[in-house]
Amino acid sequence: MTLLHTLSYAGAAAAFIFVTLSLASGLLWLSELIEEHSRTAKIVGQRGIYIIILLHVLLYYFDSLPLRHTLFSVACHLVYLQNITASWPFISLSSLTFIASCILVVIDHFVWFFHFAHLTQQARQKARSMYHTPGSIKVAGFADIATFFGICVWLAPLFLFLSLSANDNALPTNLGGNTVPSTPTIAALQPTTQPRPYDLEEAEQIQRRES
């Protein structure tokens, strides 16, 4: 079984590379789709953030999520929503809204990470005690937590990240609102070079010879 065990590592590495390349290709396709259909993508992004906010409220009532964490996530998504302006998908990387979004997505991730980690640790401690049995402890599984992070924490920032690819193909006329003339003016077409001194001397010598 030594050779088969070695081949299993090679197969796992090949599967990891395949999944990574497939994910990269899918994200590239989504970014091009957002760039080509920016108006439709803007509507989808806005409504998607509203749906995520509604999901936070529903999870608070049905799954008893903490109110403070839920309100913080709702506030984060309201900040994400401020990036979808009239000039979208053109987002200024130096704007206060974008910088705040980058900071909030990291904080929101760790807020929920520590929350679920605390619940899991607390459930393990209760399961080890003599007054509780493991079957009576209800803890969210890995699939539930991963789904929550994928939809309620990462989906909106990922959408904004994919929309940044449109900034690479943006023209300078579209970013600042100032129009730049597309055709050269008459003054630009006129030659700015002046005749050199030795050219004038040669012209005078030719005139003297002809006279």
UniProtKB/TrEMBL annotation:
<dbReference type="InterPro" id="IPR007277">
    <property type="entry name" value="Svp26/Tex261"/>
</dbReference>
<feature type="transmembrane region" description="Helical">
    <location>
        <begin position="96"/>
        <end position="118"/>
    </location>
</feature>
<dbReference type="Pfam" id="PF04148">
    <property type="entry name" value="Erv26"/>
</dbReference>
<comment type="similarity">
    <text>Belongs to the SVP26 family.</text>
</comment>
<feature type="transmembrane region" description="Helical">
    <location>
        <begin position="6"/>
        <end position="31"/>
    </location>
</feature>
<dbReference type="GO" id="GO:0006888">
    <property type="term" value="P:endoplasmic reticulum to Golgi vesicle-mediated transport"/>
</dbReference>
<keyword id="KW-1133">Transmembrane helix</keyword>
<keyword id="KW-0472">Membrane</keyword>
<feature type="transmembrane region" description="Helical">
    <location>
        <begin position="43"/>
        <end position="62"/>
    </location>
</feature>
<feature type="transmembrane region" description="Helical">
    <location>
        <begin position="139"/>
        <end position="162"/>
    </location>
</feature>
<dbReference type="GO" id="GO:0030134">
    <property type="term" value="C:COPII-coated ER to Golgi transport vesicle"/>
</dbReference>
<dbReference type="GO" id="GO:0005789">
    <property type="term" value="C:endoplasmic reticulum membrane"/>
</dbReference>
<dbReference type="GO" id="GO:0000139">
    <property type="term" value="C:Golgi membrane"/>
</dbReference>
<keyword id="KW-0812">Transmembrane</keyword>
<dbReference type="GO" id="GO:0097020">
    <property type="term" value="F:COPII receptor activity"/>
</dbReference>
<feature type="region of interest" description="Disordered">
    <location>
        <begin position="191"/>
        <end position="211"/>
    </location>
</feature>
<protein>
    <submittedName>
        <fullName>Erv26 super protein</fullName>
    </submittedName>
</protein>
